[in-house]
Design a protein that fits this description.
The chain is α/β, with parallel strands linked by helices. The chain has 10 helices and 18 strands. The chain has helices spanning 39-46, 61-70, 99-105, 201-216, 248-269, 292-297, 315-318, 345-352, 369-372, 447-463, and strands at residues 13-19, 49-51, 54-55, 109-115, 149-153, 165-166, 169-170, 174-180, 187-193, 221-226, 276-282, 322-325, 334-336, 340-341, 385-388, 394-398, 401-404, 428-431. The chain has a 10-stranded mixed β-sheet with strand order 7-6-5-4-10-1-11-12-2-13, with helices on both faces. Helix 4 (201-216) runs parallel beside helix 5.
Length: 489
């Protein structure tokens, strides 16, 4: 059994690589039938730990990112359903502690490189949010939330404006309008920077990360690297086209895997690998729009054995790959079945550095350090995990039980909200120990479990937190328009 020690002369570096819409089943060490050979992620797992029961807090991207950086469930923000766009205003509340601001205060150099998708304030020429004055600085972007440096794009690679942003300025003025209507490589019509080519975004951001490691290596650093891939537009570069022998999405996943390899190789080259925590995960499950039927015909299932995809309340919406290494502290080759959530990054990082969080920060974050260090648990790390779908539907998981407080998928899979057959029970209860595919709704067999979990989730909502501490307010108070019909008063 490992115990934490302090042989290091300095605090560990932290690199958090967040894939965009990548499924649990896309990683070969997590899926024995994967048609994709993710050699670099498999190596990361062999040198560290792979989680089999890890979850994003939401089944879609903006809310998941909010939770990762704030340690707070996404539905406590003003965004109760859906996602932001490329021109949206900031979602993270002014003055709220983030993982980055906490680490900055602890003496870290901090960088965010990649897809932000949490809103920023563009300088506008009029009341139209798309009428941007690109010559003026952007305010309340990543550098306002604890990052020393930012380079990347405002939202998903299929959402305009298509410009690179460095700190608070665009790197080049838009000089044309672009749009793509190819099946997997599509993006919405929008202004495009003179230096912006969609296919180059992932390689360019990767290069920035590698350069930043070189520049920052003399100090402890935190790099948050939210990839624009393998989300649409699916744009593998020439070296990866056809490599997976599946489809363009499979090729793009292998390109993501290669990015992880490049980052780890750079750390090794700089002599930093042993004392750097490298985390790889995804913001939600795989999108159903990446040719999943064709992949299934080839025997590849991005959601593995789980029901549903991105956007859904089902496991395929939010059960995600989570793999990490920290050679100095984490024993290699571990597989962890403990249920954890991406909202836990803040508390875990605080625990690593022996920092204490104030009551108004990380309200839903639980330290995962005991399982990183292979310590024996006397009880589960988390009392429960709350899941959330694109339309704002809730689910709560405690032990083997998962209660979904909606009759449908809450997302894009059958039965879709508004299209579900009549007569379905208002809630769904699944025993995941026997029914990982969520096929047998047992809500009528175990009404006491439904009641217990509804009551627990109600207390989490009303207290503004799910961890011990003083109650906190939720943005928007308790007056949510929908999704809280089940709340126990």
């Amino acid at each position: 059994m490992h115990t934490q020690h302090s042989s290091s002369k300095r605090k560990p570096n932290i690199i958090y690589i967040l894939a965009d819409d990548m499924g649990y089943g896309d990683v070969s060490c997590l899926n024995e039938n994967s048609k994709l050979n993710t050699v670099h992620l498999d190596r990361l797992a062999s040198r560290g730990i792979a989680f089999t029961d890890a979850h994003s807090s939401s089944a879609v991207c903006t809310p998941s990112r909010y939770s990762i950086l704030t340690g707070r469930y996404n539905w406590r923000s003003e965004l109760k359903d859906g996602v932001l766009g490329g021109y949206s205003r900031p979602l993270i509340e002014q003055g709220r502690m983030t993982v980055a601001s906490m680490l900055l205060e602890a003496g870290y150099r901090t960088a965010c490189i990649g897809k932000w998708h949490l809103g920023m304030e563009w300088s506008l020429n009029s009341d139209d949010i798309t009428d941007v004055d690109y010559t003026k600085p952007i305010t309340n972007g990543p550098t306002a939330y604890g990052f020393d440096y930012y380079y990347g794009i405002s939202a998903s690679l299929d959402m305009p404006p298509y410009v690179y942003i460095e700190n608070d300025r665009v790197t080049a003025m838009p000089n044309r309008i672009t749009k793509s209507e190819t099946e997997l490589g599509w993006w919405r019509e929008g202004p495009t920077g003179e230096d912006f080519i969609h296919e180059e975004v992932l390689p360019r951001c990767t290069e920035k990360v590698l350069d930043w490691i070189d520049q920052a290596k003399d100090d402890p650093f935190f790099i948050y690297f939210p990839l624009p891939a393998p989300h649409t537009p699916v744009l593998p570069t020439e070296a990866f086209q056809g490599k997976s022998q599946t489809n363009a999405y499979g090729d793009f996943v292998l390109m993501v895997d290669d990015v992880v390899g490049q980052v780890v190789h750079k750390l090794e080259e700089c002599g930093l690998a042993d004392n750097t925590i490298v985390v790889f995960t995804s913001d939600n499950g795989c999108s159903p729009g990446v040719g999943i039927k064709g992949l299934a015909e080839l025997g590849h299932h991005p959601s593995y054995v789980f029901r549903g995809y991105k956007a859904d309340i089902f496991e395929g919406g939010h059960r995600i790959p989570l793999i990490m290494q920290w050679p100095e502290q984490i024993r290699g080759g571990q597989v962890c079945d403990e249920p954890v959530c991406l909202v836990d990054l803040m508390s875990t990082t605080a625990d690593v550095l022996k920092l204490s969080l104030p009551d108004d920060a990380g309200e839903d974050s639980v330290s995962n350090l005991p399982v990183w260090l292979d310590q024996e648990l006397k009880q589960p790390l988390r009392e429960a995990i709350v899941h959330h779908s694109i339309n704002g539907s809730f689910s709560i998981r405690k032990g083997k039980w998962k209660l979904e407080l909606c009759p449908d998928s809450g997302g894009w899979s059958y039965p879709m909200p508004g299209e579900a057959p009549e007569g379905l029970p208002a809630v769904q209860l699944y025993d995941l120990s026997h029914d990982i595919g969520e096929q047998h709704n047992v809500c009528e067999v175990y009404p006491e479990i439904v009641q217990e979990l509804t009551k627990l989730l109600s207390s989490y909502v009303k207290n503004g937190r799910s961890t011990p501490g003083a109650p906190q307010p939720n943005a928007g108070g308790m007056e949510w328009v929908h999704s809280l019909e089940w709340l126990v008063k």
